[in-house]
Amino acid sequence: MFANNHIKLDSIDSTNSYVLSLQKRGVLKEGLVVTANYQSGGNGQRGKTWESNINENLLLSVVIEPMISISKQFEISKIVSLSICDLLTFLGLNPEIKWPNDILVSKQKIAGILIQNKLKGNLIIHSIIGIGLNINQMHFEEYSPKATSLQLLLNKKSEVDKVQDELLQFLSVRLKQFRSGYSYEEEYLSSLFLKDKPAAFESDNQKFMGIIKGVSQSGKLFIQLEGDSIVSYENQEVKYLF
Ligand code: BTN
Predict the structure, then answer these.
(1) Considering only CA atoms, which of 35, 43, 13 is closest in space to residue 115?
(2) How far is the CA of 42 from the centre of ligand 1 (A)?
(3) Is the CB of 191 inside a 6 Å radius of any atom of ligand 1?
(4) Which of 33, 185, 198, 240 is the most buried (most CB within 10 A)?
(5) Is the Cβ atom of 60 under 6 angstroms away from ligand 1?
(6) Could you identify the atom of ligand 1 that is nearest to the CA of residue 46?
(7) Would you say the CB of residue 132 lies under 6 angstroms from ligand 1?
(8) Strands ordered across the beta sheet of 221-225
């Protein structure tokens, strides 16, 4: 599915922005893969930037045509998160998904996902899935959560192109399963970081304890509060304190 349409860039501001610029020219197609050795202005979630040393990590954007309602948009995030977990498990690691879009190993962030959807009415016609996966970088700036890489975890270098091909393979399999009606709910919940564990959060400048219970189809996080009420939070509304 991702084998025949690959644009390899040496340097670009952001692979996601590059794909978005192709959309304006009407050439976006499912299966398009764009990779870069370096991004001068990589985009992260919540308006942050994504840092990556030249040639050391995977910087990838892929295009799919989900044709699902915007109300189910989080299904795409689940598919992508689980594909990255498949890859990391295959490489011998124990990944967890930190809602909404981070992949952690030992509480450290190894990958981030940035999904940008293009709509026609309520229908998602294109999803630009941006993935940053740290592979051979050994030093990172101070982030929260702390960043890590395959090399830091496995004590050996990996070939970026090989890891990229393996990831695209896992993603193709997950997408096919999804389209044949397979539900990822259980698998997703069992990989969800801090699920069913008392943890500290912050929302509206208030710190509180709660227990993650699940995620809605549209992507809201369900947290059970003291007193057992369950409150749902949008992406920007709640922060983990760990
Ligand atoms: C995050 O903040 O965790 C999301 C990071 C997503 C980074 C990737 S790198 C490839 C693609 N192009 C971008 O500009 N961002 C995504």
Answers:
(1) 43
(2) 6
(3) no
(4) 33
(5) yes
(6) 2
(7) yes
(8) 230-233, 221-225, 206-215, 198-203, 239-241
Beta carbon of 193 within 6 Å of any ligand 1 atom: no
Is 137 in contact with 58 (CB distance < 8 Å)? no
Average pLDDT by stretches of 10, the chain with 242 residues: 93 97 86 97 94 97 97 95 98 98 97 97 97 98 92 98 98 96 93 97 96 94 94 94 86
| Spacing, Cα 205 to ligand 1 middle (Å) | 27
Question: Residue for token digits 């040639």?
Answer: 55
Alpha-carbon torsion, ordered 146, 189, 35, 121, to 10 deg: -120
Residue whose C-alpha is closest to residue 165's, from 2, 10, 24, 55: 2
Ligand 1 center to residue 39 CA distance, Å? 10
Torsion of the alpha carbons at 188, 191, 192 and 197, rounded to the nearest 10: 130
With a 6 A CB cut-off, is 35 part of the ligand 1 pocket? no
| Residue count (the chain) | 242
Q: Which atom of ligand 1 is nearest to the CA of 109?
A: 3
What is d(CA 112, CA 60) in angstroms, rounded to the nearest whole number?
Answer: 11
Q: What is the DSSP letter of 220?
A: P
